[in-house]
Write a structure and sequence with these properties.
The chain is built from seven helices and 15 strands. It has about 240 residues and is α/β, with parallel strands linked by helices. About 30% of the residues are buried. It has a five-stranded parallel sheet, with helices on both faces. The chain has a five-stranded antiparallel sheet with strand order 10-9-8-12-11. Strands 13-14-15 form a three-stranded antiparallel sheet, with no helix packed on it.
C-alpha cells in the first residue's frame, strides 16, 4: 500500500489535502502531522512513500520549519530519494527548498485541487527510482553491502535478522524488524511479525492457506498484516 505523510500546521488545510488525495487514491494510506515532532514519531513506525511538507510549520522561530524537517528526512536511511512536495504561502522560499532538499515539486497557496493532483502524479510517476545499496553489519561484525533488489525476504530470528537474497544469506545483528523496514524501499511489505518480503519477488499468494511464495520459500501471512499485503497486491 502506497503511503503519504502530510505535515501541515493548518489543520483545515491538512484535512482538505487528505480528503482530495483519499478521493483520488482510495487505496493509499495517508497520515497527517501538525509539526516536525509529530512527523518524526510517525516515521518511527510508518514507511512513507511521499511527503507533503508545509514550509511554514510554526510561527515560532525556534521551532523547525518544513525545510528543517526536509533536511532530517534526507539524513534517514532509505529516504534520500523519497519524493517531497513543498507547500508554501511564500513563493520566495521555494528556491531554497528546491536547492537544499531536491524536492520533486511544490505548491504555492492557494492552489487548486487539480494542481495538487498534478504535483502528486508528477512526484510519484516521474521521480526517478534510485535504489541505494544498504551498508549493514553482519553477526561477525563485518560490514556488508546489500542491494535491496537482490533481497527475496527478511526473517527475524531472536536478536538477529536473516536476509535471504537470490544468491546468499546474511545474518545481521542489532536491527529490529521495524528499523530494517524503514531502510528499505516501499515495495518491501511486512507480511508477518517475523517476515518482510520483497513485493516484486512474489510468485504467488494462496489466500486459502495464507502463504506467500517467493523463490523456493513459502512465507506465512499474519492476520495483522493480511490487509496491507492484499492492498499492495490489489486483491
Amino acid at each position: 500500500m502506497f503511503s503519504v505523510l502530510i505535515v501541515e500546521d493548518d489543520l483545515n488545510q491538512s484535512d482538505i489535502i487528505k480528503e482530495l488525495l483519499s478521493g483520488k487514491y482510495p487505496g493509499w494510506d495517508i497520515r497527517t502531522a501538525k509539526n516536525a515532532g509529530e512527523a518524526e514519531k510517525i516515521l518511527k513506525s510508518f514507511k512513507v512513500g511521499l511527503f507533503l511538507l508545509d514550509i511554514e510549520l510554526s510561527k515560532e522561530e525556534t521551532e523547525p520549519d518544513g525545510i528543517d524537517f526536509g533536511r532530517k528526512i534526507r539524513e534517514i536511511p532509505g529516504y534520500k530519494h523519497i519524493p517531497v512536495i513543498f507547500i508554501t504561502g511564500m513563493s520566495d522560499k521555494v528556491l531554497k527548498a528546491l536547492q537544499e532538499i531536491h524536492c520533486a515539486s511544490y505548491l504555492v497557496k492557494p492552489f487548486l485541487p487539480e494542481q495538487l493532483i498534478e504535483a502528486v502524479e508528477y512526484a510519484t510517476e516521474t521521480e526517478a527510482e534510485v535504489t541505494e545499496e544498504l551498508l549493514l553489519k553482519d553477526s561477525n561484525g563485518v560490514y556488508q553491502r546489500v542491494a535491496p533488489d537482490s533481497i527475496l525476504y527478511l526473517e527475524s530470528n531472536g536478536k538477529n535478522i536473516i536476509i535471504h537474497t537470490e544468491v546468499y544469506i546474511i545474518t545481521i545483528a542489532n536491527y529490529s524488524v521495524t528499523k530494517i523496514q524503514q531502510m528499505l524501499p516501499d515495495y518491501f511489505i511486512r507480511c508477518h511479525r517475523k517476515y518482510i518480503i520483497n513485493g516484486r519477488k512474489i510468485i504467488s499468494y494462496d489466500k486459502s492457506t495464507q502463504f506467500i511464495h517467493i523463490g523456493k520459500s513459502s512465507i506465512p501471512v499474519g492476520r495483522k498484516h493480511k490487509d496491507e499485503l492484499e492492498g499492495f497486491l490489489k486483491l
